[in-house]
Amino acid sequence: MIESLTIENLRGIKKLSISGLTNINIFVGKNGAGKSTILEAIFLASTFFNKEDTLRGKNKLDYIVKRRAGRGNWQNSRDILWYARNTSEDITIELRFRTGNSLKFKVPYAGEISLQIPSEEKATGKATWLKPDNYLDVARSLGLEKETVYLREVVFLDSRLSVYDIERRVWRYLLDKRLDKLVVDLVRDEYEPRTESITYKPGISGFVLSILLPHTSVEIDGLGDGARIAILYASILALVSDTGVLIEDPEVHQHPGGLLTLLKFTLKMAKERNLQLFITTHSLELVSIARELCNKYGLDVKVFYIERDHETGLVDVRTIDRVDLEVLEKMGLDPRLLHVL
Ligand SMILES: Nc1ncnc2c1ncn2[C@@H]1O[C@H](COP(=O)(O)OP(=O)(O)O)[C@@H](O)[C@H]1O
Ligand SMILES: [Mg+2]
């Protein structure tokens, strides 16, 4: 589990440090505060151990650029990632794990992401930077097995995931373990109570994942956005373990009941599969539901208020505890508006 992180020179962030990260981490703050960039930073660091985004069948670096630069890719558009497009400064991401190991990555504009050997700098006063080619040997010799597994498996759940990604790259692994039943239960609970199963149906251009109802079937793509996204996220959450899951604004498209059901599922998986969650949100409902459920499931949860100085790119991070929230709510004030209060 990641306990603290520092990001420098990434997108709108000149510098940001967060400590005291826990099982379930919820990031709130204005648009443009840098919440999504925190998720991207962890995903970017993970490329050192695994370049391929197995969910999307793409290179992760290309995806990080493309998700906000339309058709761009790493080769032709990566300068958008450098703070104020100052590509002469390296992007750095430092992650300190609960194991006590700290991994510092640097991303130079030209060249590959590299990892600083922990403790080397202390011992010799000089940093040695490793390339990703032989990361397994490196990880073994440095005793970084846990951190390697964690970062190799990290997944990024955002609304750009498509049914096609799940059909081609996820569903068969669920079937192998019959974890599809978990997803069917979720669909039945909230979205389509008469669902009998989810299966592939021959379509015009290949097989498509569909819900079987008593008298008809509906393609997953033909469901409402809330149901579709819940199925995509749940399919992935049911498969991963011992890693971090990055979830961007999960409330989008969800009815409050859908949000509750999806959160329940997500937190249950987090508990059972040792997942550390990083969730960005604008939803107070999400914050209070997550607090309640975490309490019930015995998960630690923290809410971080992110505020970015647009002049300097320096980011201030404050934790909002339950008492703060309750006081603000009693006063009739919306804690999302902390910056103007
Ligand atoms: N290369 C860059 N240099 C400086 N600022 C940037 C750069 N790329 C994006 N930004 C700014 O960073 C912010 C993006 O933050 P983001 O992580 O999307 O925030 P949030 O998810 O909290 O809404 C935006 O305000 C954007 O203008
Ligand atoms: Mg965002």
Explain the overall architecture.
This protein has about 350 residues and is of the alpha+beta class. The chain has a single domain (about 1-335), classed as Rossmann fold. The chain has helices at about 35-45, 60-65, 75, 120-125, 135-140, 145-155, 165-170, 170-175, 180-190, 225-235, 255-270, 285-295, 320-330; strands spanning about 1-10, 15-20, 25-30, 50-55, 60, 90-95, 100-105, 115, 130, 155, 195-205, 205-210, 215-220, 245-250, 275-280, 300-310, 315-320. The longest helix has 17 residues, at about 255-270. The model has no long low-confidence stretch (mean pLDDT about 90). The structure holds adenosine-5'-diphosphate and magnesium ion (MG). The site of adenosine-5'-diphosphate has 16 residues, from helix 1.
Concise structural overview:
With 341 residues, this protein is α+β, with helices and mostly antiparallel strands. 36% of the residues lie in helices and 25% in strands.
Chart the SSEs and their pairings:
Layout lengths: L1 E9 L2 E6 L5 E5 L6 H12 L5 E2 L4 E2 H7 L7 H4 L13 E7 L4 E6 L6 E3 L3 H5 L4 E2 L4 H8 L2 H9 L1 E3 L5 H7 L1 H6 L3 H11 L6 E7 L2 E7 L4 E3 L5 H13 L6 E5 L7 H17 L3 E5 L3 H14 L3 E8 L6 E6 L1 H9 L11
Parallel strand pairs: 3-15, 3-16, 10-14, 14-15
Antiparallel strand pairs: 1-2, 1-6, 4-5, 6-7, 7-8, 8-9, 11-12, 12-13, 16-17
Helix pairs in contact: 9-10, 10-11, 11-12
The structure holds adenosine-5'-diphosphate and magnesium ion.
